[in-house]
Design goal:
The strands form 4 sheets. Strands 3, 4, 6, 7 and 8 form a 5-stranded antiparallel β-sheet that branches. Strands 11, 12, 14, 15 and 16 form a 5-stranded antiparallel β-sheet that branches. This protein has helices at residues 2-18, 62-65, 119-122, 230-266, 274-282, 285-293, 321-326, 328-334, 359-363, and strands spanning 25-32, 35-41, 54-61, 74-80, 84-86, 96-105, 108-109, 113-118, 130-136, 139-145, 162-169, 177-181, 185-188, 196-205, 210-214, 218-221. Among the domains are: 2-122, Immunoglobulins (Immunoglobulin-like, Sandwich), CATH 2.60.40; 130-221, Immunoglobulin-like (Sandwich), CATH 2.60.40. With 364 residues, the protein is of the alpha+beta class. The chain is 27% helix and 28% strand. Strand 9 and strand 10 (139-145) form a beta hairpin. Residues 124-225 form the Fibronectin type-III domain. One of its GO terms (molecular function) is cytokine receptor activity.
Length: 364
Amino acid sequence: MMSASLLVVILIHIYTVTAKLPEPQNVNVQGVNTRYILKWDWEWDQQPANKSIRFTVEYIPSYKYEMKGKKEWRMVCEKIPGTQCDFSEKVNYFGMFHLRLRAKSGRETSPWVIIEFCAEKDANLGPPSKVNVISKKGMLEVSIADPMASENKSMRELQKIYFMVVYWKNTSGAKNVSLIEDKNVAILMGLEPWTVYCVQVQSRSDYYEKKSLFSPMVCTQTTDDGHTPLWLIILIFFLTLALSFGGTLLCSFIVFQTYRVIKYTFFPFYQLPDNIQECLNEFTPMAQYAVLLSKDKEMELCCEKVNIVSEVTHEHSPISETALETDPVNHYRQNSGDSGVYSSEDGSGGVVGTGAPPETAGEE
């Protein structure tokens, strides 16, 4: 009986020595996509003076935890001073695990706190990693980037997700409009032109009914509805017509001026003198070619006969036409074929030239 009482006292003493520290409170896992952090609260006012508190976190797969016998816990965080432990790289997304946590200060320890965790079920789904809104012809094109897991992978590789797009006019009292989209691009139609709309997107998964937080708000102004007004069509038509007519006139003017320059430069309206043209023609390529063809013949110098006529003033004698007609003898003598010279005065001692025989005169 004494031995049993002594054993109870010893056990109580051991328990009071080893379990003197309180256990951590509010132990939970905050997991988003594939990042998992174990967090807890600690009553710092209960911490003994001049004693430092350290925390230890261990894990084990759930199927091993259910097995009888000694359990092989694996260390995650050992003797850390903070109140959180990141074990993202230790567990698999589709696995089931048990985690345990305790506080320790010197030889004093707290009881273990054990929780169960499954990432696929308990981890939250994150919002889209990026949302971009572009205005196109009165519509808004929303580009949505998938939530990202570790190692820069999309969460679509781990579970099926879709998006809920919520948008509204950026005015007071405007109602929200939601749209479900399973692709990464959503088109918002039926919007008012030249109006500012704000957009937020939420990620969702139906397997465990997960809903993420909404992405940051993005606001963009719409443009026109894509239909050109009639007045703008008419204005564009007349502007095009005016530009076409003006361009045609300008081209015609340029062609005309170019034609005039070429014509007056190479085909002038005046003609050079013939003698200058002949001299120029002698030096033309065709003339030189003709000379080369006739180089085996004798070259002749061709000259033209030039008649020089001078103006002569004829002095007429005062003999009238009647006198010529009434003096046939003198006219006959003047035009006779005799070559002698006669004197008009008898016995004047003039020179008598050789002429016709005297008989002709007597016969007369």
